Structures are given as C-alpha cells and as structure tokens.
C-alpha cells in the first residue's frame, strides 16, 4: 500500500494522479449539487462551407470518434482518467528503474491507450444520452401546446392528457399547478416537463 502511494505521488505519475483527483473532486461537487453534469460540456458540431460540403475539422472527427459530444465531457474524462493513471503506474513500475524523463515519455502511450479504453467504456452511454436528448427535445416541442384532459388531475394526483400531433394524439402524464384541477374533457396549457418524475405540469385553459 505504501509503495502504491509513493508511486501515485511520484513525479512521473503526478499528471495522471492530478487528473484523477480532479475528476473525483468534480463528482463530489456534482453529488453535493455544486456543479451540473454538463458544466464542462464540449460541443462537437460540423462546419459547413458555402457550397454545402461538410468541412468538419480533423480535430472534431477525432473527438467524435472517441464519443466526445455524444456523452458529456466529464463522463468521458472519468473513464479516461482511471485507465490513464493505471497504465502510467504499471508502466513505471515494470518498465522504469526510476528515470524521470523515461517516466514522462511513458505518459504518451499510456494516454493513447487510455483514450481507446475510454471510447470502449463510454459506448454503452452513447445510446443512453442520445435517448435522453431525444426525450428532452420532444418535451421542449410540447411545452406551450394545448392538451385535452383524458383522466382528471390536480396538484397532487397524476392524470392524463392528449396533445394533437400530425399522427395519433400523444398521451401525457400530467399534474396541475397547486390549487387547480382539471376534469376529463377540459383543455389545459402545457407549462413544463418534470424530468425527474416524468410528468408534464399543466394549468386549466379556456379556449375561445
């Protein structure tokens, strides 16, 4: 254990150790509500020239390959920091006899290997965050629309309401603002989406 601690804080491993410590402090801040998950978010967007031909930069292609932009930056960095630290520790333990310069050189292959490990580990999260983004966009499109109540609702009990779409009506779980209630057949205005509890907040609305 003492040997691991000495290796962790040695000069050759201080960079991956600092990165791992930063990630751990970040998640503690998220847990205690001091930071949001997307505080350090990276936006990877293609650039298009005047002729409409995609001019995505080489860097953006690399970022997208490693799932940056598909998962939050700090989620990727978390899966990068741990293998980077582990590879650096192992490389210097088995392949270095205490040469600082050689240890720093080992950071390069350790980092590259950690990138591919992070890409593999974040693959399951790509679909999860894609689904969450789709749900968020769908919810945003419904806000401000008029719905028809199909099951009564109030500020404490969930009901249901239907929103007209180009196809079949979209059925929503709804709850009204405190102090109000809606009955079956009445109309209401969709105010916001409660992502935590998966329902839409509505208020009674009288159409003219």
TrEMBL record:
<feature type="transmembrane region" description="Helical">
    <location>
        <begin position="75"/>
        <end position="95"/>
    </location>
</feature>
<dbReference type="InterPro" id="IPR012340">
    <property type="entry name" value="NA-bd_OB-fold"/>
</dbReference>
<keyword id="KW-0812">Transmembrane</keyword>
<protein>
    <submittedName>
        <fullName>Uncharacterized protein DUF1449</fullName>
    </submittedName>
</protein>
<feature type="domain" description="Inner membrane protein YqiJ N-terminal">
    <location>
        <begin position="18"/>
        <end position="118"/>
    </location>
</feature>
<dbReference type="InterPro" id="IPR048376">
    <property type="entry name" value="YqiJ_N"/>
</dbReference>
<keyword id="KW-0472">Membrane</keyword>
<feature type="transmembrane region" description="Helical">
    <location>
        <begin position="101"/>
        <end position="122"/>
    </location>
</feature>
<dbReference type="Pfam" id="PF21001">
    <property type="entry name" value="YqiJ_N"/>
</dbReference>
<keyword id="KW-1133">Transmembrane helix</keyword>
<feature type="transmembrane region" description="Helical">
    <location>
        <begin position="12"/>
        <end position="32"/>
    </location>
</feature>
């Amino acid at each position: 254990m003492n040997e691991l601690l000495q290796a962790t804080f040695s000069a050759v491993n201080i960079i991956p150790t600092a990165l791992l410590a930063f990630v751990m402090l970040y998640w503690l801040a998220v847990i205690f509500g001091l930071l949001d998950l997307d505080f350090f978010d990276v936006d990877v967007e293609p650039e298009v020239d005047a002729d409409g031909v995609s001019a995505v930069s080489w860097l953006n292609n690399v970022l997208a390959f490693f799932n940056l932009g598909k998962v939050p930056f700090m989620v990727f960095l978390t899966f990068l920091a741990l293998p980077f630290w582990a590879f650096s520790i192992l490389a210097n333990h088995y392949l270095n006899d205490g040469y600082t310069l050689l240890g720093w050189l080992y950071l390069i292959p350790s980092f590259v290997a950690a990138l591919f490990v992070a890409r593999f580990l974040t693959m399951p999260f790509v679909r999860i965050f894609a689904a969450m983004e789709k749900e968020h966009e769908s919810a945003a499109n419904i806000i401000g629309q008029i719905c028809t109540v199909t099951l009564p609702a109030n500020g404490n009990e969930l009901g249901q309401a239907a929103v007209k779409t180009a196809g079949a009506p979209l059925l929503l779980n709804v709850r009204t603002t405190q102090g109000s209630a809606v009955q079956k057949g009445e109309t209401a205005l969709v105010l916001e989406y409660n992502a935590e509890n998966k329902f839409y907040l509505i208020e009674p609305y009288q159409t003219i």
